[in-house]
Amino acid sequence: MVTYKDAGVDIYKEDRVIKALISQITFKRDDIKPAELEGHYAGAIEFGDYYLVLCTDGVGSKMIVAEMAKKFDTVPIDMIAMNVNDAICIGAEPVALVDYLAVEDIDEEIARQIGKGLNEGAKEANINIIGGETATLPHMIKGIDLAGTVLAIVRKDQIITGKDIKPGDVIVGLRSSGIHSNGLSLARKVFFEIAGMDIHDELPHGKTIAEELLTPTRIYVRPVLEMIKKVKVKGLAHITGGGFRKLRRLNKNVAYIIDNLPEVLPIFKEIQRLGNVPDEEMFRTFNMGIGFCVIVDKEDAEKVIEIANSYNIPAFVIGRIKEEPKNKVIVKYKGKEIHLD
């Protein structure tokens, strides 16, 4: 039996580290007013009738898989997806991105592949890449690291924080494309250490490990922005590291009950089978096939699903909002309740 912590990632320790870091950042400019978004997906400051929104993120250990497979044209899409999918969680439209590429050493072919992926991700997210930085750091970096920062905008009167979520609302889940960009440390430990497999080995459902792990994170920008225009969206959650625990960022005064999940994707079944990973650990680590959640009134769910389907994204009503227990996420799976505290 293996856990995410066994693979070197302690999500609870990360929570404590973030709190320790934030506790020391107290300086604020008097002439800049930030939005009240503590603990949310993005940071924002007032700019006239708008908020300027910033998000930053990287590829993480998915880059190690790219190096193993010698394939670098999909991970830039992941980097862009991780940023823009966070930005849209407060209703903001991403408009521009700058990237940061840190390398031990690099050649032109790898650079071309990364450039190709950056272009594809920018096109899918409908953003401009307006600059960036490349640093060769042989004494600091082993391999390659790729990160970026996105700028997004939202009118002040249209920001979505989750404050309007109430009991009786439903949670619509949008299908992920696979593992996305979280839990790769655990996936690598299971496939390459515990199971002793090779990156190009084929899994029972016909895809190789490389194909599964390097499938880029789905970008939800266009469908979600359309949903915001056509229905009253009350809450938006990008399901990344920590799984459905991310829902607690939206509104701490309600309970999130996930009780109607679609079938788990094959990649997660294989990780669980080969690593004997407990159900609880799977749901605390991976998206389990749902990459994004949209919370709306029950009568608006059908329209949200229709919009997602028009972008070839399967969508389902996967849960509901209850009054109690407050600030809890409960997943009902295989006849038991999993509390994602």
UniProtKB/TrEMBL annotation:
EC main group: ligase
Superkingdom per UniProt: Archaea
Gene responsible for this protein: purM
Domain PurM-like N-terminal: 41-154
Protein name as catalogued: Phosphoribosylformylglycinamidine cyclo-ligase
Gene Ontology MF terms in the entry: ATP binding; phosphoribosylamine-glycine ligase activity; phosphoribosylformylglycinamidine cyclo-ligase activity
Record-stated family: Belongs to the AIR synthase family.
Swiss-Prot/TrEMBL keywords: ATP-binding, Cytoplasm, Ligase, Nucleotide-binding, Purine biosynthesis
Pathway(s): Purine metabolism; IMP biosynthesis via de novo pathway; 5-amino-1-(5-phospho-D-ribosyl)imidazole from N(2)-formyl-N(1)-(5-phospho-D-ribosyl)glycinamide: step 2/2
Alphabetical GO biological process terms: 'de novo' IMP biosynthetic process; adenine biosynthetic process
Catalytic activity, EC: 6.3.3.1
PANTHER family: TRIFUNCTIONAL PURINE BIOSYNTHETIC PROTEIN ADENOSINE-3, TRIFUNCTIONAL PURINE BIOSYNTHETIC PROTEIN ADENOSINE-3-RELATED
Domain PurM-like C-terminal stretches: 166-332
Compartments, record wording: Cytoplasm
